[in-house]
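Worked Example 4.2. Consider the chain below.
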Amino acid sequence: MTLDPVVLFFLLGLFAALARSELKLPPALYETLSVFLLLAIGLKGGVALAKTGSPQVLLQVLLVILLGTLLTLLAFGILRWRLNRADAAATAAHYGSVSVVTFAVAASFLARQGIEAEPQLTLYLAVMEMPALVVGVLLARLGDGQQLRWGQLAHEVFLGKSMVLLLGGLVIGWLAGPTGIGSLSPLYVDLFKPVLSLFLLEMGLLTAAKLGGLRRQGGFVVLFGLLVPLGFACIGLGSAYAMGLSAGGALLLATLCASSSYIAAPAAMRIAVPEANPALSLAASLGVTFPFNLLFGIPLYWMLTQWLYA
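Applying the procedure from the previous section yields the following structure tokens:
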């Protein structure tokens, strides 16, 4: 198996941290790279949407919202076997939500092989953040008698940094179209993979830092972080096939379903479900599922996609 060079940068960061190297990236650089990636993904999706403009996309968006809700409920049902309500709901929200970086690596995987995907997948990426966070909070609050801070939660979900940058980029790309965005291409298109490689270097360092917490959480969290993405990827593949997406689109939707959030969901759950243990959900999401998807998951989902579409 030939690994994508950007994944090798992740392994470099992981190795450096585990070997106790002095390698560190400035926190400001991490923030800058995050802003760039979110904007670049949004712009690319917006430009592609401007080329198609299919009304069928609206129906697919509704289906994707239902899909995000279903995945959150399934994850909660599994987690409740071993965890209390608050921890199960917060972790389920992470797994019903999605990872922008995992999506970017899957898109890079397709681009490397010259395979196209539908442009609306970027829109799905933004949409799937929302239902998981709302359902996660509802699951945590059902029957506990506590008052829910809906205004603060809505602000975090709809006006959080990742949502504003993704949807903002999508709208700008859609309004400007391919011609208007042309002058920005040297930055947002040509430099996408180099910037992604630097971001993954930092993610490798962060993942290694979460491994200690993972050892304290026990085998259940590890098994959940490995097996649930596989099941969710199969649900995503079946949904993509039923929606009539191409093989490239199916891989991206399967990857979205299999990924878990470590940016938007932790921030929202910290506000809405403060009694939940954030180390538990982050250890599973960042310490298990993220590296699994990068190293093994995406190639495996592609094999399943090729089998389904053969």
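The mean pLDDT is 84. The longest helix spans residues 278-309. Compare this with Example 4.1 before moving on.
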